[in-house]
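Morning. Coffee machine broken again, so started the prediction first thing and wrote up yesterday's gels while waiting. Chain of 467 residues, entered below exactly as on the submission form.
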Amino acid sequence: MRDETCDVAVIGAGTAGLAAYRAATEEGARAVLIERGPGGTTCARVGCMPSKLLIAAAEAAHRAREADLFGIRIGSVSVDGPAVLERVRAERDRFVGKVLEGVDRFPEGDRLSGTARFLDSHSLAIGDAVRLRFRAAVVATGSSPAVPEPLRGLGDRLLTTDTLFEIPDLPRSLAVLGLGAVGIEIAQAMARLGVKVTAIDSGRTIAGLTEPDLLERAVAIFGGEFALLQDTRVEATRREGEGVRLSFTGKDGAGSSLEVERVLSAAGRPPNVGGLGLETTGVALDGDGMPEFDSRSLVCRGGPILIAGDADGWRPVLHEASRQGGIAGRNAAALAAGRSTEAPEPWPALAMVFTHPQAAAIGAPFETGAGDRIVAGADFGNQGRARAEGVNRGGIRLWAAPNGRLLGAEMLGPAVEHLAHIVSGALRDGLTAAALLDRPYYHPTIEEGLSSVLSEIVQKITDESRL
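Came back before lunch.
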C-alpha cells in the first residue's frame, strides 16, 4: 500500500463532492477527489434529469390526449415504450458525459478511484492500494434508494431509481411505494404513458404538501389519474407468475392484495455513511451511525471531518448539495491551514415536485393552529392565464408574521417552479408581503395568482391595525 498526502480529502465525486473539491483548491489547498464509481452525479445519472425526461414524454402524451379542449382533433395517441426509454437513456448519458468530462479536466494526481474508509482521524485507505493522509476530509458520499424489508427478494421485478431507467420497455402495471417527490412524479408519468399504476403510502402527505386544503386537492387531482392508496401498509410481497403480488392493510384495517408486473420502491434515499469507518475518527455519531454536525459550517463534532450533500441527510436537493459542497470545501481548507471556519446563514427551505400540476414547499412549514401567523390563499380554478391554457387546478397558500414578513408557502398548480423561486428569494431577503406586492406583475400571467395572495395578506394586516 503506497502512501500519499494531501490537505483535503473529498470522498465522493457527486454534486457536493465536486463543489467541495473546487472550493478547497480555490482556497489554495491541495485536494484529492476520491470516487468509487460509477460517477456522473446522482442528479444526472439516476435522479433529476432522467426523471424529468420521462415526465416530459408523459406530458407530451397527455397534452395530445387533452387537445380536444382547444378544438384540436388529434385522434388516438399511442406510446412507443422502448422509444420513450431509449430517448431517456440517450439524453441521460449526454448529461452524465458532460459531468465526467469536467472531472477528467482535474489534474490526474488529484483523482483517486476506489472505495474509501477511514483508518483514523487523519488517514484513509483507498481500496487496498493507497493510504491517504489528510489534514481535513469532506464526506460527500451521497445516498442510495431505500428498499423496505417487505420488498426484498423480488429480484428484477423490484425497481428503484437506480434501475428504473434501464428497463427495455414500460411495464403493463406498476405499484409505486412512496408518495414523496420521486414516487408521485414517476407514478403520474407512468400513468400518462399508459401504465396501470397503483401508488401506495403509509402516510397521508403527497408531494411534500401538508396544508390541508392543498393536500385534499392533490388527492383529488392525482387520484383521478391513477389508483391512490394512503394510510396503507404493505405487509408482504412475493413473486407470482410474471409479476408480483403485494399484500397490504388499508386505512380501514382491512387486508387486501394486488398483482402488478413491477414494483418501484420510492421510499426515500438514506445517506451512504455505512462502511466508511467513521467510528475510527473520533467524530460523534448518533444511534444510526450518522455523524453529528453543525448545519451551517458542516463541521462534524469531534474531528477535522465535514459532511455535505445527500450524505448529511439534511436537505437532499441539488442546489443545497452544491452550496454545501462549497461551504465544506472552503471550511476544510481553512481547517487544514489552521484558519477559522465560516458558518453562513442557511438558505430558506425550497423543495419542488415536477408533476402536473407542480407542487412546492418554501420556507417555514405549515402549522395548524399557529395563531401568530397570517395565512392567505388563492385558487387557480378561475385564474385567467391558467384557464386560458387549461391548467387551472390547485392553489397557493402563503403565511406571514403579524408584521407582514413572509415566512413560508405551499403551492400546487401551474408554473409553481417559478412562483416558488419568487417567494424563496423574498424569504432570503426578509421581505414583507407589502414589499413583494410592490413589484410589477404582468397581465395575464400565472404570477398574478401570487399577487392576489399577497394583497390578501396586506389587507388582513390593515384590517387588524384598525381594530
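The chain has a mean pLDDT of 96. Going to sketch it on the whiteboard this afternoon.
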